[in-house]
Design brief:
Layout lengths: L33 H9 L2 E6 L3 H20 L5 E10 L4 H14 L3 E7 L2 H8 L4 H4 L4 H16 L1
Parallel strand pairs: 1-2, 2-3
């Protein structure tokens, strides 16, 4: 006789995810919340996505304050990997000026890879698929792949 389905033991989850994965990305909402602080406490490094708008650029300081607080009190090994531009549309002059401001302010911390604005990102979210499954040939997928390459090369 077969045991009831709910009594069959599932294989245990790995105790040490780093034994199974090279990288684990924790994507947090843009607001600083307990979720963000917990992610910073568990992380080994952080990447800060930045849109080319004033509110996003102004928010970098708040994120860095959170990073500093977590590094000082909870996770002394936390490392800043850098900032990267998302939803990039460099046609407007203000966007290009914002990039110059970011370069001046953050220099080496500003990664070269930029993720261009792409409607396929919104579509993939609606379909609950990552961009590489939904539209692997779109600009955003190529841009995220370039970001990964830059991170791995710099590691």
């Amino acid at each position: 006789a077969e045991p009831p389905h709910n009594s069959v033991a599932e294989p245990p989850l790995p105790l040490y995810p780093e034994d199974y994965f090279d990288y684990i990305l924790i994507d947090c909402p843009p607001a600083l919340s307990i979720l963000t602080f917990n992610a910073l406490a568990a992380a080994t490094s952080i990447l800060i996505p930045v849109e080319l708008g004033a509110l996003s650029v102004d928010g970098i300081g708040n994120m860095l304050d959170a990073y500093t607080a977590v590094k000082r009190r909870i996770n002394k090994d936390l490392v800043m990997r850098g900032l990267f531009i998302v939803k990039s549309d460099e046609r407007p002059r203000v966007a290009r000026e914002t990039i110059d401001i970011l370069k001046d302010a953050w220099g080496a911390h500003l990664l070269n890879a930029r993720v261009r604005q792409c409607v396929k990102i919104q579509e993939s979210q609606w379909h609950h698929l990552d961009i590489f499954k939904h539209a692997p040939e779109c600009n955003a997928a190529k841009d995220y792949a370039a970001l990964v390459d830059e991170l791995i090369t710099d590691n």
